[in-house]
Each structure stands twice: as structure tokens, then as C-alpha cells.
Amino acid sequence: MNEPQDPVDEHDAADAVEAPVRPRRKGIYILPNLFTLAALFGGFYAIVMAMNGRFEQAAIGVFCAMVLDSLDGRVARMTHTQSAFGEQMDSLSDMVSFGAAPALIVYEWALKGLGKPGWIAAFVYCACAALRLARFNTNIAVVDRRFFQGLPSPAAAALVTGFIWIMDDAGYRGGIREITWLVWLTFGITLYAGLTMVTNVPFYSFKDVSFRRSVPFVVIVAIALVIALINLHVPGMLFTLFIVYGLSGYGVYIWRRMKGKPVSVIATSTDEPDERGLHR
């Protein structure tokens, strides 16, 4: 004989049905974030080296951070480990390595001798790096992926620290603040790099370059020649490459204007009135 069962409360049954299923918490992917943390360490290392007057090591730290920053996203896509956490971590790492670090390095190296104009120039660079990263995160869904909107922050950092690297290699290691022409040249490069980050000038992103496609043999030969040329004088050749890239955006802008083509890199319009200023 079956025992009588307790009646089920209709309220308890409704709560059981309507209770939301809590989403399973995702962990943090180790591999891509290791590259991001290593890039962050490169920026921190650069700051420490600049505080100790070792500006060549400081510049090398920033360039190492650039290499690591270019790898973390590719590693995440190749291993299918993209995450919102990784995106935010990458932006914070970029702000330290390519925003705060170059600004502090260039201030310690030369701009401190200018007094107030010096630290203002360093702050302008740092603020423009923050604005550029914020705009990049906001416009990522509407910008033509073939181009960057403004000079990317790693390239801007390479302009500033690359110049310090070649000057340090040339023997300008002490008493930089007393060399007026060098201090003001550094001032100009810092402002150029900072302000170009927040322009709407299109800079080629190389994101449409596929490493899985076959290429003619001559391309491999050209790559080998470029590597050999860089090894002739590493700081000079790297700085030259980034000077060319830092000016290329304006060349593309002028060429498009002359051809009557649109110069905006915004691929899709947005109806959000609060964000219109970000897309022009």
C-alpha cells in the first residue's frame, strides 16, 4: 500500500519553475593573459630603468612590450581563448606600456629640463594615449579593420622611445637637459606622437594580411633582407621604420583627398547621439 505523499505547495512549485538559472562562471584563460602580463611587465620594467637613468634598457622594455602585445591577441584567436576579461586586461596593459611608460621615460630623459612645458607635453602624450585606447574600444565594431583611426599607441610609443634609444646609442647619455636643440626636438616628437593618436588619420593596420597564404619566393627573400638591414643598426633601423609608418597615415589621408575618396575609417554609421563625436 502506497504511503500518502505531502502535497506540493503551489508557491514552491512556481518558485522552482521561475528560479533563474545562474550562468556558469568562466575561468581566466592562462595562455593569452600570460603574454599580456609579460607586456605589462615590459612597460613597468621600462619605467624602473628610466628612474635609474638606464634609458637604453627602458626603450628596449617598451619595444619588447610591443612584440608581446602583438602576440596576445593572435594567440587568443588561434587557441579560441578570447574573453572580455582578456580585452580589458589588454587595454590596461597598453595604457601602462604605451601611455604612462613612454611619457615618464621621455620626461626623465629630456623634458624635465623644460620645467612646466616639459611635464605638460608628457601629460598630453599620456592623456592622448588614454583617449585613443578608449576610442578604439568604443569604435571597434564600426571601424574598417584594414585601418586604425589615428596612430596606434604602440607605434606612438616606438616613436618616442625609439628616438631616445638612438640618441642614447649616439652618446647622448648624460646632460641631455642642457642641450637645448635636443630637448625641444624631443618636445616636438612627443607632441606629434601624442596628438596623432587622437586624429582621424587612417593608418594601415596589416590585419588583412594572412600568414596562411602562399607567397612568391621573392617575398621571403625581401623579409630576409629587411631582417639583415635591421641588424646593421637595430635602434636606427627600427626608429626609421616607425618614422615612415608615423608619417604614412598623413600620406594616405592626402592621397584619398586628392582622389575624392572618403577619408573616414568608420565603416558603419551609428544612431547613438552621445557617441557621434567619436566617429568623426
What is the rounded Rg? 25 Å
Tertiary shape: globular
Distance between the termini: 80 Å
The CATH architecture term is Up-down Bundle
Order of helices and strands: HHHHHEHHEHH
Q: Assign a percent range to the helix content.
A: 55-70%
CATH class value: Mainly Alpha
The main β sheet shows up as: 2 strands, antiparallel
Give me the oligomer status. single chain
Percent of residues in β-strands? under 5%
Q: Which structural class should the secondary elements be placed in?
A: mainly alpha
Number of domains: 1
The average pLDDT is 83
Number of helices: 9
CATH topology: Four Helix Bundle (Hemerythrin (Met), subunit A)
Number of strands: 2
- Going by CATH, the homologous superfamily would be CDP-alcohol phosphotransferase transmembrane (TM) domain
Which regions are unreliable across 5 or more consecutive residues at pLDDT < 50?
10-14, 268-280
Outline the structure in words:
The chain has 280 residues and is an all-alpha fold. The chain has one domain: CDP-alcohol phosphotransferase transmembrane (TM) domain (Four Helix Bundle (Hemerythrin (Met), subunit A)), CATH 1.20.120. It has nine helices and two strands, in the order αααααβααβαα. The protein has helices spanning 10-18, 30-51, 55-78, 84-109, 116-139, 153-169, 180-197, 217-232, 234-259; strands at 147-149, 202-204. The longest helix is centred in the middle third of the chain and has 26 residues, at 84-109. It starts with 9 loop residues before the first helix and ends in a 21-residue tail after the last helix.
